[in-house]
Specification:
heterodimer, A: alpha+beta, Ubiquitin-like (UB roll), three-stranded antiparallel beta sheet, 21% strand, elongated, B: alpha/beta, Dimethylsulfoxide Reductase, domain 2, Rossmann fold, 4 domains, six-stranded mixed beta barrel, 18 helices, 30% helix, binds iron/sulfur cluster
Chain lengths: 351, 526
């Protein structure tokens, strides 16, 4: 237990943790580009820090992510000194960042944009050359190193959480930026998991094919659900606006703890596909023909009753699905075991 | 899984057999790789070199279908060298003497030629496995054999001999291929049991369900999929209702399945796309995708997690549970549910493992069953207080060769699996442009040495024939596959691997021997 003073308030912190964590626990947002809870107990050969999480502790400016809380600390989370330091960090970043917000697909979800707005940083011209080539060789996402702010998150996630090790930080003409191990992503051993994309705070790593959805970004909702592909059961945050799924990212909880694979991250796109079945179909003169629900239900009940009378329950069988929900599977077998009266139910678990 | 996914990090040794987690369960693959980097030892047995093999302490490339010989060999070495956990065997198991007697003859020298690996490698594998808390991961490479059940039993024997049951960092962990295989089993989507594997002939169980459902429940044992398909062919099964499955592509011996489906009087298919199976139906019902409905899935570590509706479905598609409820109501069961949460409440009433589960309790994070009551926090590790049935039973199993063997007409063996970019029969992933770009069409992996012998170029179009049928596909050279073996992903309708697979079944649980087909290969001119 630690007794500290946060912004003039006496506060009890129950567990040993970083100042950043303690502040967040007290509901105080601390800005950061590079912080990720999952990095806490992991060790990296190269540490990066953005410095933005700076706070004033006992009169001195300290990085709250790497300072451990101790008894009697006097912490100011947004004193003038703190604000001034954060502003100067942001100004330095923006000096070498494309001023593209109007056309950038990250707009609305970009931390740099948000913080610049919050801290009143305005720029209409700067010295950014935008000379680094964009890597668009992956069908899933592109890398624009010009927009990279070298927070190092993607490097850590790819190398130490996803354990593929495709990305690293390098320097070109004085600018630190992300680079790919190998010629381009396509030639690299990248497994297209998109975990790097999910953590990038800016527009340097962006999923492809999302332009045109930008205007919706400000009104998106997040719905947490479970991946529909393999048995790991990763928790996914679907970004939804106006009845459309705009993107998917890993939820920070669940068995996946912030990771996904390519299917979970990018495989949701079948949902709105034009091939989807939209009405019931009934076979007429050999052809499957559109029908109403009432017609479909009526035909099914009629056929089932007829075959029940002539052949009994053992002439029926049902295949349920390892893709459907528990509730659906339950109802399906209940249907067969109650109204039909057979145990002829199986599913493809064996396959 | 006896142990949770998170528990991988506690393992000192990780043994992966018949599974390719980096491609098929990628997030677990990532965790295995991290555990390895943090000092765990990694051993792998597979006929095909997998991504994890590069990092492993030992990779044994064994002949297809010889898992049990290898595992018995490992147990032999462990006992011979005194590496077993004597205390665990003594206090927690029965029938050890029988196991010992059976594995006696499985000396590394006896096993080596069966598996096509060196005797010393088997010794080394056993020693590494026994060198610390060891976790076993396996998948369909174990189960989809004629002796699949025995393969699982032999792994359980191995784990028990070293006391790796009910402990952190141990366990026997099947990696389930489809998202809700566990749940479909738990929900009684099986011919021989009700929910939670309850036996419907047990009087107490029967009474529980009859009271909840307000009707008598059938007592006659049900048919398994292969029996249902045979029944359709012989016209004893007249009406089949298929929900969310595509057996035309996923089941072995496609020509047989086609014949079965076409023989039915009435076929109902409920799905989100007009699959190869739905095309043959009399009625097709448009269902909802996972993001368009509420419910739960149960993952491979027994964790029951929420599925939530994010968007509406297209056109007049309906949520599957609503369709089923409507049909049930029209056919005379008047139970109504306002929301899937109420279905879960009913499941909880009749299923001991799910008794403590409700939508409210799993709103933030899922719970791992068994959850015996509403205050229980779930069970991350099974058998933590000793095996559930009192004592763990050693059931010694013998190696038997696969039913399917090479012959003069079919001189090569073909196995199959998945790849990273697709899922099952591609009804979903095949409609994601980017995934198709990465993996557009079917292929057969062949070792370059074999290719040279056969005189085929990488990328050549070939015809592959088995006793069941033939397909055309393209060659993909891969050094990581054994010379006598071919590998095909089973995702693709054009060049569908399951045209070739056979229907030899595991006697114990009816899993087809999907992993082994004897085939011939010829150039294809077209
Ligand atoms: S997509 Fe995955 S593997 Fe590829 S660079 Fe990003 S994190 Fe690494
Ligand atoms: S690409 Fe994004 S995540 Fe990676 S270092 Fe640059 S800003 Fe950070
Ligand atoms: S995101 Fe990938 S690993 Fe996770 S559940 Fe989905 S398919 Fe499996």
């Amino acid at each position: 237990m630690f007794e500290v003073i946060i912004n003039g308030q006496k506060t009890i912190i129950r567990e040993e943790s970083s100042v950043l964590r303690a502040l967040t626990g007290e509901g105080i947002q601390v800005p950061s580009f590079c912080y990720d809870e999952r990095f806490i107990n992991r060790h990296f050969p190269e540490e990066t820090d953005c410095g933005l999480c700076v706070v004033e502790i006992d009169g001195k400016l300290e990085k709250s992510c790497s300072t451990v809380i101790s008894d009697g600390m006097v912490i100011l989370s947004d004193s003038d000194k703190v604000i001034e330091r954060r502003k100067s960090i942001l100004e330095k970043i923006i000096e070498d960042h494309p001023l593209d917000c109007i056309v950038c697909d990250k707009a609305g979800g970009c931390k740099l944009q948000d913080y610049c707005y919050e801290y009143g940083i305005e720029k209409s011209s700067n010295s950014c050359l935008e000379a680094l080539p964009v890597d668009g060789s992956s069908p899933f996402f592109s890398i624009d190193p010009n927009k990279c702010i070298a927070c190092g998150k993607c490097v850590k996630v790819c190398g130490y959480l996803q354990n593929t090790n495709i990305l690293f930080l390098t320097e070109t003409n004085g600018k630190r930026h992300v680079a790919v191990n190998g010629e381009t992503l396509r030639e690299s051993a990248c497994g297209s998991c998109g975990n790097c994309v999910s953590v990038c705070p800016v527009g340097a790593l962006l999923p492809k094919g999302i332009s045109g959805t930008r205007a919706d970004r400000w009104k998106t909702e997040t719905v947490q659900t479970t991946c529909c592909y393999c048995g790991v059961g990763c928790q996914i945050d679907l970004k939804v606006a106006e009845n459309k799924i705009l993107g998917a990212g890993p939820a920070a909880s669940g068995p996946n703890d912030g990771l996904l694979c390519v299917k979970g991250k990018f495989g949701y796109k079948f949902i709105g596909h034009s091939d989807r079945l939209k009405t019931p179909l009934i076979r007429q003169n050999g052809q499957l023909t559109e029908a109403t629900w009432d017609e479909a239900y009526a035909l099914i009940t009629e056929k089932i009753s007829g075959l029940m009378a002539s052949d009994g329950p053992e002439a029926f069988a049902g295949l349920t699905s390892a893709r459907c929900t528990n509730e659906e599977n339950y109802l399906f077998q209940k249907l067969f075991r109650t109204v039909i009266g057979t145990n002829n139910i199986d599913h493809c678990a064996r396959l | 899984m006896t142990n949770g996914i998170e528990d991988v990090e506690n393992a000192e040794v990780i043994f992966v057999i018949g599974s390719n987690p980096r491609e098929n369960h990628p997030v677990i693959g990532a965790k295995i790789k991290e555990a390895k980097r943090n000092g765990a030892r990694l051993i792998i047995a597979d006929p095909r070199k997998i991504d994890l093999s590069n990092e492993s302490d030992l990779f044994v490339q064994l002949k297809l279908g010889t898992n049990i010989a290898l595992i018995n060999g490992m147990i032999h070495v462990i006992i011979e060298e005194g590496l077993e956990d004597k205390e665990y065997i003594e206090t927690h198991t029965e029938n050890y003497r029988n196991l010992k007697a059976v594995v006696e003859k499985y000396t590394p020298e006896h096993v080596a030629p069966i598996c096509g690996v060196k005797a010393d490698e088997i010794r080394e594998m056993a020693r590494i496995y026994a060198s610390g808390r060891a976790s076993i991961f396996y998948a369909m490479g174990i189960t989809q054999h004629k002796t699949g059940t025995n393969g699982v039993i032999s792994l359980s024997n191995l784990a028990q001999v070293c006391g790796n049951i009910g402990v952190k960092g141990g366990g026997i962990n099947p990696l389930r291929g489809q998202n809700n295989v566990q749940g479909a089993c738990d929900m009684g989507g099986l011919p021989d049991v009700l929910t939670g594997s309850q036996d419907y002939t047990n009087p107490g169980v029967k009474q529980l369900f009859e009271e909840e459902w307000g009707t008598k429940i059938p007592q006659k044992p049900g048919l398994t999929i292969p029996e249902i398909m045979d029944g359709a062919c012989s016209n004893t099964i007249k009406c089949l209702f298929i929900m969310g499955e595509n057996p035309m592509l996923s089941d072995p011996d496609m020509n047989h399945i086609r014949h079965a489906l076409d023989s039915l009087d009435f076929l109902i298919v409920q799905d989100i796309f007009l699959t190869e199976t739905a095309e043959r139906a009399h009625v097709v019902l448009p269902a909802r995708a996972f993001a368009e409905k509420d419910g739960t899935f149960t993952n491979t570590e027994r964790r029951v997690q929420r599925v939530r509706k994010a968007v509406d479905g297209p056109g007049e598609s309906r949520e599957d549970w609503l369709i089923l409820m409507e049909l049930m109501n029209r056919l005379g069961q008047d139970r109504k549910y306002a929301h899937p949460g109420e279905i879960m409440d009913e499941i909880a009433r009749v299923t001991p493992q799910y008794r403590g589960i409700s939508y409210e309790r799993i709103a933030k994070a899922g719970l791992q069953w068994p959850v015996p009551h509403k205050e229980h926090m779930g069970t991350p590790i099974l058998h933590a207080n000793g095996p559930i049935r009192g004592k763990g039973y050693f059931c010694a199993v013998e190696y038997e060769p696969s039913a399917e063997q090479v012959s003069a007409n079919f001189p090569y063996l073909l196995t199959n699996g998945r790849n990273l970019y697709h899922y099952h029969t591609r009804t979903m992933t095949g409609r994601v442009k980017e995934l198709n770009e990465k993996s557009p069409c079917s292929y057969v992996e062949i070792n370059p040495i074999t290719l040279r012998k056969l005189g085929f170029e990488d990328g050549a179009k070939v015809k592959i024939t088995s006793a069941r049928g033939h397909i055309t596909t393209r060659v993909k050279a891969y050094e990581g596959i054994m010379e006598e073996l071919f590998f095909m992903p089973f995702h693709f309708a054009d060049g569908a691997a399951n045209v070739l697979t056979g229907t030899n079944l595991d006697e114990k649980c009816g899993i087809p021997e999907l992993k082994v087909s004897a085939v011939n290969i010829e150039p294809a001119f077209a």
